[in-house]
Design a protein that fits this description.
The complex is a heterotrimer of chains A (234), B (234) and C (275). Chain A has ten helices and no strands. Chain A has 234 residues and is mainly alpha-helical. Chain A has one domain (2-233): MetI-like (MetI-like fold), CATH 1.10.3720. Chain B has 234 residues and is an alpha/beta fold. Helix content of chain B is 37%, strand content 25%. A six-stranded mixed β-sheet of chain B has the order 5-6-7-3-8-9, with helices on both faces. A three-stranded antiparallel β-sheet of chain B has the order 2-1-4, with helices on one face. In chain B, β6, α5 and β7 (179-184) form a beta-alpha-beta unit. Chain B starts with a strand and ends in a 6-residue tail after the last helix. Chain C is of the alpha/beta class and 275 residues long. Chain C has two domains: 27-107 and 223-271, D-Maltodextrin-Binding Protein, domain 2 (3-Layer(aba) Sandwich); 108-220, Periplasmic binding protein-like II (D-Maltodextrin-Binding Protein, domain 2). Helix content of chain C is 44%, strand content 24%. Chain C has helices spanning 2-24, 36-41, 43-55, 66-75, 86-94, 127-137, 149-160, 180-190, 198-201, 239-250, 252-260; strands spanning 29-35, 58-64, 80-83, 98-114, 141-143, 173-175, 193-197, 210-214, 221-229, 262-263, 266-267, 270-271. Chain C is globular. The N and C termini of chain C lie far apart (68 Å). Classes of the chains: A mainly alpha (234), B alpha/beta (234), C alpha/beta (275). The A-C interface holds A 30-32, 34-35, 37-38, 86-88, 92-93, 95, 97-101, 104, 179-184, 194, 196-201, 225, 228-229 and C 1, 3-4, 7, 11-12, 14-15, 17-19, 21-22, 25-26, 31, 36, 39-40, 44-45, 58, 60-63, 75-77, 178-182, 184-185, 188, 203-207, 234, 236.
């Protein structure tokens, strides 16, 4: 496919030339998605851990809901957050619409369920092994949840990477709440959408190749760190 | 905390009776060995006494004065170690009991020294051998200075050499003033480590006697058969 | 453990940098809602830096369909609206949603279609006639279908031709519900006719087999207007900064900047502001 060849050419040209706009777009994409992932870690992982170790009426339904929210359509989340942050909406006075902060919020909403649902599974599996011993030592449920979060940290890296992948790949939410403003809220995915709509398919594809390379690099890096640490700590 | 009183304690699951109306008083001092074939209910009885399970009928009560802190500890057939160093595993239990970090580390190193694991203090606990991990589990329990130490088939998964190490440590713990309540299906071990025998069969406490008399002149038919190795599995 | 700490620090630094950058960018800027056709033409990339250099005001353009752009103004999420649907803009000014409307520039629409020209619509200067031929031949036509300025213009032309294209919805009349670029992509892939503004067409690279079929009809005139969101309706509107932008756009300097924007040798927009 001739377009593919052109695409690789475009990608190479942009990378080698360290195109200023490209660097800015890549930096913003990473900032937004990594910030969203950080929020998801802080909020989602403890939620998953606490659900994993506790027993309460309606627990099964909560788990089903959590799993279901992993599939939240990004464009719907974007729309809801847009309505919240719009001047006409309840949180309008904060002026967050069309800023990177709004994009971070939208992506965080998307990946918190992923972090919670997947960590819930990981920790519930571990709880089966650890429950009696931790209870014997007198650990409270909350303390056990935190202990297991740390103990399953290597499996949780994969969970976090899943969240990052979802955040870095989505376009629907950040397009709506960010507005794809040149130099302010343009990220890789929205730039690709823009170039596609301008008919510049090789450039769009080239950007896509760079985006995939980025995500793969992050994944590879995290995986290597995890492997090294795992070898040292068992 | 001792004496531990069980009054007509039963435990049933899904209609199946696992512990059948056991009444017994366990006092401080002698090493109590709960002996019986597999399926007799020994592990369940241990967990009921330790508080990991609640009886479906009857009362379990500690009638003695409570001196505060973690007064019971339990060692399981398979040791459960956290993904951290051997030393950190012991410190974990102590910190849960409210001991300061410095004090915890001192106590942990002391006990590791006594059981001969000092050289492995900084090794990740989960890469230690089965025997070493069980020694570590005993250390973790011992460091807490419990009034009662429960042990559920502590050497069943170990080779004879490692098992002998564990038995020696158990004796040392008893010598330091901790009440030992232990289950086993191993006659030789019961003879070596027990001062009194509680013989369980079919969820019932069939016989209770000092170790010498139990093995020389068992009062019940089931005990006599078990000693001869002729008791059927359940 | 050290690696974990380093990773955590990096994340914290990045998040902090994000908040800082969100902060400092908040100094002097306005939000302008405009259309994808204007954005895709590249006009803003040409003229906005000139305005920012002169005044220090950053112009943030959110590009969408005209309908959405006007809605955004009504909601107060923008300070200035810059679209090309005078028929829709004027009533909204009358209702008090916007103030200070000015004509800015015009370009024209063109009808593009496959070189094979199944409807034999090509060559003439009569757009209504061309539309009639397309409907009669039931030739594929890609419509934006998204309440944009272009879409409104297209619907007006169908009306003038006394044709209801929605009778062919799903067969020859395809509503993409998307921006101009996406619609052109679809038209190129389907070998369909489409009405597009020249500003999007000239820089458009994925033409496939399409070419200009009809142009130059007076009825293809496309007027762009700019207006301020009424601060009386939305107190948060940046009145002075927004007005500064409007004043510059209709000033001789701004108008020249617009006229200077070319792709190759072709001028895309023709300034026609009157003071």
């Amino acid at each position: 496919m001739e377009d593919m060849q052109l695409a690789f050419g475009e990608a190479a040209r942009l990378i080698v030339g360290l195109d200023r706009e490209l660097v800015a777009i890549v930096a913003l994409s990473l900032q937004v998605s990594l910030s969203a992932v950080s929020i998801a870690i802080v909020i989602g992982l403890p939620i998953g851990a606490v659900i994993a170790v506790s027993r309460f009426p309606g627990r099964q339904m909560v788990i089903a809901l959590l799993n279901g929210f992993m599939g939240l359509p990004p464009v719907v989340v974007g729309l809801l957050i847009y309505l919240l942050l719009s001047r006409a909406g309840p949180l309008g006075e904060f002026g967050l619409l069309f800023t990177p902060a709004a994009m971070v919020i939208a992506q965080a909403v998307l990946i918190i369920p992923i972090a919670a649902a997947l960590s819930r599974q990981v920790i519930e599996d571990a709880w089966r092994e650890y429950e009696e011993q931790l209870r014997s030592l007198g650990a409270s449920l909350f303390s056990s949840a935190l202990t297991l979060l740390w103990d399953t940290r290597f499996s949780l890296v994969t969970v976090v990477l899943a969240g990052f992948g979802r955040a870095a790949a989505e376009v629907g939410a950040v397009m709506i709440v960010g507005g794809n403003i040149d130099g302010v809220t343009r990220v890789m995915t929205t730039a690709i959408a823009l170039e596609t709509s301008k008919g510049d398919l090789p450039l769009a594809l080239g950007l896509g190749i760079i985006l995939m390379g980025l995500v793969l690099a992050v994944n590879a890096g995290a995986y290597l760190i995890k492997e090294m640490a795992q070898r040292r700590y068992g | 905390m001792l004496p531990l009183i069980l009054e007509d304690v039963s435990f049933a699951v899904n209609g199946r009776t696992i512990i059948d109306r056991i009444s017994v008083e366990i006092v401080a001092g002698p090493r109590t060995v709960i002996l019986g074939p597999n399926g007799a209910g020994k592990s369940v009885l241990m967990r009921l006494c330790h508080g990991l399970l609640n009886p479906t009928a009857g009362v379990i009560a500690w009638r003695g004065p409570t001196k505060g802190g973690r007064r019971q500890a339990m060692v399981f057939q398979r040791p459960v170690m956290l993904r951290r160093s051997a030393l950190a595993n012991i410190v974990y239990g102590l910190r849960l009991a409210g001991i300061s970090r410095t004090e915890s580390e001192l106590r942990a190193r002391d006990v590791l020294e006594v059981v001969g694991l000092a050289a492995l203090a900084d090794r990740p606990a989960r890469v230690l051998s089965g025997g070493e991990q069980q020694r570590l589990a005993l250390s973790r329990a011992w460091a807490l200075g419990p009034e009662v130490l429960f042990l559920d088939e502590p050497t069943a998964s170990l080779d004879p050499g490692a098992a002998r190490d564990i038995e020696n440590i158990i004796s040392a713990i008893h010598a330091s003033g901790t009440k030992i309540i232990m289950t086993t299906h191993n006659l030789g071990q019961a003879r070596r480590l027990g001062d009194e025998i509680l013989f369980l069969y079919g969820g019932r406490l069939v016989e209770r006697a000092p170790v010498g008399r139990f093995f020389a002149a068992p009062a019940s038919a089931e005990a006599a058969q078990f000693i001869k190795g002729e008791l059927p599995w359940q | 453990m050290a690696i974990m700490r380093r990773l955590a620090t990096t994340i914290v630094v990045m998040v902090a940098a994000l908040s800082v950058s969100a902060g400092w960018a908040a100094d002097r800027f306005i939000t302008v809602s405009s259309t994808t056709s204007t954005e895709n033409s590249g006009l803003f990339k040409h003229i906005l830096p000139l305005f920012q250099k002169k005044t220090g005001i950053q112009v943030r353009v959110v590009a969408q369909g005209t309908g959405q752009a006007l809605d955004m103004g009504k909601r107060g999420d923008a300070d200035v609206v810059f679209v090309h649907d005078k028929a829709k803009e004027l009533p909204l000014v009358k209702q008090g949603w916007f103030i200070g409307r000015h004509d800015v520039m015009y370009n024209d629409f063109v009808l593009v279609g496959p070189k094979a020209d199944p409807a034999k619509a090509a060559g003439g200067k009569d757009i209504i006639e061309a539309f009639r031929k397309i409907a009669a031949a039931k030739a594929p036509f890609a419509s934006r279908g998204d309440r944009s300025g272009t879409h409104s213009a297209e619907l007006r032309l169908w009306k003038a031709a006394a044709i209801d294209p929605t009778s062919g919805k799903g067969s020859w009349y395809r509503e993409t519900g998307s921006g101009m670029g996406a619609t052109l992509n679809t038209a190129a892939a389907m070998n369909a006719y489409a009405l597009t503004d020249r500003g999007t067409w000239l820089p458009f690279k994925n033409r496939g087999d399409l070419g200009i079929v009809v142009e130059g009809d007076k009825r293809l005139f496309n007027q762009y207007g700019i207006m301020l969101v009424n601060p009386a309706k939305h107190p948060n509107v940046k009145r002075e900064l927004g007005q500064a932008f409007i004043d510059w756009v209709i000033s001789p300097e701004g108008q020249k900047a617009i006229a200077d924007y070319k792709i190759g040798n072709d001028q895309l927009f023709f300034p026609n502001a009157r003071k």
